[in-house]
Amino acid sequence: GPCYCDQACARTLDCCHDYAQACTVIPCVVSQWSAWSGCAEPCKTTYRVRMRHIIQEPRNGGEACPALEERAGCVEYWTRQGTECQQSLIPALITTGGFGKARKKRAAADGNERAGYCVEFQLVAITPGCLHSHHSYTRWMRYLREGHTVCVECQHPALHSPSQHCYGDGTGSQKNQLLHWQAVGNHRCKGTWRRIRQLDSCSCPSVHSFLFI
């Protein structure tokens, strides 16, 4: 009888003897990726999307189609109306306070020395990635512990004009609001904290002192 190009026969084992010749395998063909979209939502850590579509459906046991949508992390610092996001909604990027002295020296040499400030936070949640930092420049992340109070200094050049604040410092946040932070140098090290207070200078031990980026 006639040979029907129905790939189900490969599972039921009743294909025609010339199935492979009469029913050529046609794999799925997809288009190129579209351009990345903007962030799904402004003023928060979210995602952006790119898409592609099917040009040729697979036939006769051809290779299945790959994913048609891809997402990537995204943060936008401006609202849809073009105004700057509220500071508290932006994840804070931090590094070890050990870089503070070198940063101040550079600022003084450039004539950009400006008075900074310090913010105390209580660490609420920390990802396991902070404990798996093997490079010498990421060892400071091991001192991050849930429940501990840490000091984060805002100084030039992270001190943005004209707001005179560092991104993610929690200015304007509600009491006990959870704020997000991420460690620079290890994208797997991040978490949440609560803002306690703002000070002119930090008073935490050096291992619990950090800098806004």
Characterise the protein shown here.
Keywords: Disulfide bond, Glycoprotein, Signal. It holds the Pfam family SBSPON_C. Residues 1-28 form the SMB domain. It is built from 3 helices and 10 strands, in the order H-H-E-E-E-E-E-H-E-E-E-E-E. The protein folds into 2 domains: 9-76, Thrombospondin type-1 (TSP1) repeat (TSP-1 type 1 repeat, Single Sheet), CATH 2.20.100.10; 90-212, no CATH class. The chain is mainly β and 213 residues long. 22% of the residues are buried.
Sum this structure up briefly.
Residues 1-28 form the SMB domain. It contains three helices and ten strands; from the N terminus they run ααβββββαβββββ.
Radius of gyration: 27 Å
**Helix run count:** 3
Largest sheet: 6 strands, mixed, barrel
Molecular shape: elongated
Number of strands: 10
Q: Order of helices and strands, N to C? A: HHEEEEEHEEEEE
Strand percentage, roughly?
Answer: 25-35%
Average pLDDT taken over every residue: 80
Sheet/helix structural class? mainly beta
| Structural domain tally | 2
Strands ordered across the widest β-sheet: 5-8-9-6-7-10
- Helical content stands at under 10%
Measure the end-to-end span.
74 Å
Low-confidence stretches: none
Domain SMB: 1-28
Keywords: Disulfide bond, Glycoprotein, Signal
Pfam families: SBSPON_C (PF25031), TSP1_spondin (PF19028)
Protein name: SBSPO protein
